[in-house]
Amino acid sequence: MTTRPIRIAPSILSADFARLGAEIEAIDKAGADYIHVDVMDGHFVPNITFGMPVMAAVRSYTAKPFDTHLMIAPADPYIAAFAKAGADSITVHAEAGQHLHRSLQAIKAEGKRAGVAINPATPLSAIEHVLDDIDLLLVMTINPGFGGQTFIPATLDKVRQAHALIGARPIDLEVDGGVTVDNIGEIARAGANVFVAGSSIFAGNDPATYASRIAALRAAATH
Ligand SMILES: O=C(CO)[C@H](O)[C@H](O)COP(=O)(O)O
Ligand SMILES: [Fe+2]
């Protein structure tokens, strides 16, 4: 179990895009800690979502941090633009470029929290030499590209190992993909403290359900 604060980060990938501003306002009021923003380019992952103009357009709907998950390659040419559009943290994939350290420095140069994500098949060794350069480590618990997938069980042990590797460093350990009220407790006990959840919060897109779902996830992660 982690000693870091538990954070619930609803992924707007599963929001109703036709009402995106209102959906963000609703999850803010429902108790979201971060707003997880999934950017996909149809190249690094086999899906396309949205980019900087959409982020900038919805920025005014909440003061909560925008946790930006860049599933794009290359990422470096867009880091400054996402910072300007309103990102608070910017996470790049270790697999998305040849110069991860340079990407992380570019994020820091914008004054933003720097994150690195690794796919389920990528070993932790890919990030062990940048641990002192990051604020957030995102362990993907599904193959990125789509919401609503099933948590890959083998990633649980990776979360455990990542938690040990991070040690006392002030790094958020985030998981993304297939997080539900039924598995979040086990993932928290493995050491994660930031939980992205898309379909398990937005299913049905009824704002009246969001607060109880976020509360249930938080309670299950805490106990
Ligand atoms: O990065 C992502 C997909 O690549 C999303 O953040 C993730 O899929 C969240 O959705 P769900 O909770 O439904 O799995
Ligand atoms: Fe994500």
UniProtKB/TrEMBL annotation:
Pathway: Carbohydrate degradation. It catalyses: D-ribulose 5-phosphate = D-xylulose 5-phosphate. Coiled coil: none annotated. A divalent metal cation binds at H36, D38, H69, D176. The keyword Transport does not apply. Its EC number is 5.1.3.1. Keywords: Carbohydrate metabolism, Isomerase, Metal-binding. Substrate binds at S11, H69, G145, F146, G147, G148, D176, G177, G178, G198, S199. The active site is at D38 (proton acceptor), D176 (proton donor). PANTHER family: RIBULOSE-5-PHOSPHATE-3-EPIMERASE. This is Ribulose-phosphate 3-epimerase. It comes from Devosia neptuniae.
